[in-house]
Amino acid sequence: MQIAHLTDLHIRPRGKPAYRVVEVNMMLARALATLKALDPLPDALVLSGDLTDCGLAEEYALLRGLLESLGMPVYLIPGNHDRREALREVFGDWPTFGDDPQFIDFAADLGPVRVVGVDTVVPGHGHGALCAHRLQRLETTLAQAPDKPTLVFLHHPPFICGIEHMDRIRLLDGAEELQRIIAANPQVERVLTGHHHRPIQTRWAGTIAQIAPSVAHQVEFRLDPGAEGALVLEPPAFLIHAWIEGTGLVSHQVYVERYPGPHPFVLDADYPGAS
Predict the structure, then answer these.
(1) Domain interval for residue 243
(2) What is the pLDDT of residue 210?
(3) CB 252 within 8 A of CB 240
(4) Is the pTM of this model over 0.85?
(5) Which of 91, 178, 202, 273 has the most CB atoms around it within 10 Å of its CB?
(6) Mean of the per-residue pLDDT values for the chain?
(7) What are the percentages of helix, strand and coil residues in the chain, rounded to 5?
(8) Is residue 275 pLDDT above 60, yes or no?
(9) Predicted confidence (pLDDT) at residue 267 exceeds the cutoff of 90
(10) Could you give the dihedral angle defined by the CA atoms of residues 195, 210, 134 and 103, in that order, rounded to the nearest 10 degrees?
(11) Phi, psi angle pair for 242, to nearest 5°
(12) Per the domain annotation, does 261 fall within a domain?
């Protein structure tokens, strides 16, 4: 069982780059081409927010057109750049779309693992929050399968990572209660997020909390206090979470861009021990 995890797509209307420099639509098309070229093909795809840059129906329509050709179930949650109303307008009949009338989330059994998505959006704000309704819904969902390895997807990371300007807009309200819920559910193998546009992981609430890099631009790596935020065009990437019998869940980072290779491991004839 393999689950692809892409985040922070920031789709724009056709012909308009994000922040005037990032050709996000082209970059997502490349990421999906890389995904479709994997052998074996992942069993499902999860998109963990910031599906679009401005939350426009036009942007969601472009995204849907790209996703419809994948040939695998696609689960999604919104990020702070998304707008629930426009997302429902375009994706409301999507086969895996959640059924909560207020928030956009999901829960599904995928072979040996379970995936759960939680909506952390605060309309009009960059930070995330979990109200009592969303926390209770998550707690109830986890209680339904206490023995099944589970991946919980959010947009906003619930922990401080040291990139100060991003920590100010992490999951703020409800983070402590979320930590309690996750710690009480040892079947949670990963808490998986986006938002920070960097590959980051830590031990949190008795499990692994992992932030996926963006398939578009990345956030500049700056741990010095007071540093202003900026984007960089470091290589885009996504994650593959593979359930391996006898080991459990293993997460791999897959780069989108093409690089020289693959080259066979052939030693020079004068290398000691070569044959």
Answers:
(1) 2-255
(2) 98
(3) yes
(4) yes
(5) 178
(6) 96
(7) 20, 25, 50
(8) no
(9) no
(10) 40
(11) -110, 130
(12) no
Listed in sequence order, the residues at least 6 apart from 76 whose beta carbon sits closer than 8 Å to its beta carbon are 46, 47, 48, 49, 51, 91, 94, 96, 97, 104, 106, 117
- Considering Cα of 175, then 176, then 177, then 178, what sign does the dihedral take? positive
| Residue 146 pLDDT > 80 | yes
Type of residue numbered 240: I
Tell me if residue 165 falls in helix, strand or coil.
helix
Extract the tokens encoding 21.
């420099």
Is residue 225 assigned to a domain?
yes
CATH code, 83: 3.60.21.10
Q: What span, in angstroms and rounded, lies between the C-alpha atoms of 89 and 86?
A: 5
Strand partners, 193: 211
Report the candidate in 95, 83, 23 with the shortest Cα–Cα distance to residue 58: 83
The span from the CA of 94 to the CA of 98, in Å, is 9
According to DSSP, residue 187 is labeled T
pLDDT computed for residue 132 by the predictor = 97
Range with the poorest average pLDDT among 80-94, 216-230, 257-271: 257-271
Q: Which two tokens stand for residue 56?
A: 């426009």
pLDDT in tens, 103-126: 999 999 999 999 999 999 999 999
Residue 188 lies in a domain: yes
Tens digits of residue pLDDT in 4-45: 999 999 999 999 999 999 999 999 999 999 999 999 999 999
Listed residue (138, 218, 151) closest to 181, CA to CA: 138
For the segment 233-246, the average pLDDT, to the nearest whole number, is: 97
Count how many domains the chain has: 1
Angle between helices 24-36 and 57-67 (to 10 degrees): 20
